[in-house]
Write a structure and sequence with these properties.
480 residues, alpha+beta, six-stranded antiparallel beta sheet, two-stranded antiparallel ribbon, 15 helices, globular, binds adenosine monophosphate, binds magnesium ion
Amino acid sequence: MIPYASWRLRHQYATLPPYFYAAVCAAPVCAPRWVLFNDELAVDLGLDPTSFREEALPLFAGNACLVGSRPLAQAYAGHQFGHFAILGDGRALLLGEHTLPSGVLVDVHLKGSGRTPYSRGGDGRAVIGPMVREYVISEAMHALGIPTTRSLAVVATGELVYREAPLPGAILTRIASSHMRVGTFQFARHHEDADAVRRLADFAIARHDPHLSEEPDRYALFLRAVIQRQAALIAQWQALGFVHGVMNTDNITISGQTIDYGPCAFLDRYDPDTVFSSIDAYGRYAFCNQRDIGRWNVARFAECLLPLLHDHPQTARTYAQDAVDAYSSSFQEHWLRLMRHKLGLFDEADPADALLIDRLLEWMHTHRADYTNTFVALTTGHHDALCTSKHDVAWHADWQRRVHRQARPMQWIQARMQEINPCIIPRNHFVQEAIDAAESGDMDKTHRLLALLKNPYAYTKEQEAYADVPDRPYRTFCGT
Ligand code: AMP
Ligand code: MG
């Protein structure tokens, strides 16, 4: 256990050329207080939560710096809703890299810590509601088994932040495998230093794919590794019914972790066209588009690496194209495996399984059935609601026949289905209820929700109370 006083952060990102970042200190705040602190994550980081919590408040509020620390804002670019822009951490800082007990490095990052040279017109601040939301949803995603950034703490600043109305300010401390994004590579590609992409790629390989460092074709292998991670990640989002909401290339990580929980939300009544975000007027990031947007995003990444793939431009383009094409087959493979498991199919795939899945999705769409609860019903054997017409009975009979073909006891199948079909997800209205209470200083609802979300495959009575589906469609706002 490392108490705060001896907490040493490394500063490897600062070894990149200076145009990749700006050295900035957090802007101090007037009256910091803890809103949330993640004791379990602190332990995983090798910290002693009690002494750490006692001493870390000024650090996470931006009111103190560790001795020798070199906080920085990272530069990046990105396609925002398809339009290229030069961006950067406008309200966030990388405090440094922390070494896990396993020896792996993770980024320690503040969000809402004040203005930086990349703030453009923004105030550099964040509001308590969206920071609690990111904390709850990212921790829920982690418990669900989805690669994600983690939330270590939320600190209220005691200051007001002006959005449509004055709102209480807050800072989130985020832990990530790294904060390198597709947009970081787009920034490098855009830079006049011809060697910028290579330096960034070498840095990223050392961090995320060190086994490739010595390979002669390491850049092509790195491209494939990043693409594979995105395909696997987005297949997991789809299987879970998660809508990210802002899949801009600046919100797509090289590590394959989900990042930047803005207007994200989970499907309730199944509709593939679901869009939650109020700013996504044309549905670019609708649930059914996430797979193809993922491909578009990794194609932007592949473009950045072109000069490293081969000296001959045409050969480089062929490498890149093949790697991007592999995204689609890899996505399909992951998605089909996950969906088969959700349906209790653990044996060798039958070509007809895909049709069985499609028919169920169609049924959910027609009946406006809740995505998560439908799989819970299949898991627990409460099938009545799934058989309201002759057509439904036919699907159900086909499914049962297929499941029983596996020569496995039903109990075994149900136990495995329970490991993949969560009985609780962070449903929008419950998260909102917790946030509303948190904004007025009452953290009980948030703590209760967090406790239940920690074991999403437990199927407890208490979790059942969080299965209610609201009648009104939910809207999320970027108003962060
Ligand atoms: P996001 O929508 O959170 O992914 O942010 C997109 C870009 O806008 C990033 O470069 C952010 O750093 C920047 N940004 C968002 N909110 C603010 C803010 N309040 N002040 C400064 N920059 C911001
Ligand atoms: Mg972002």
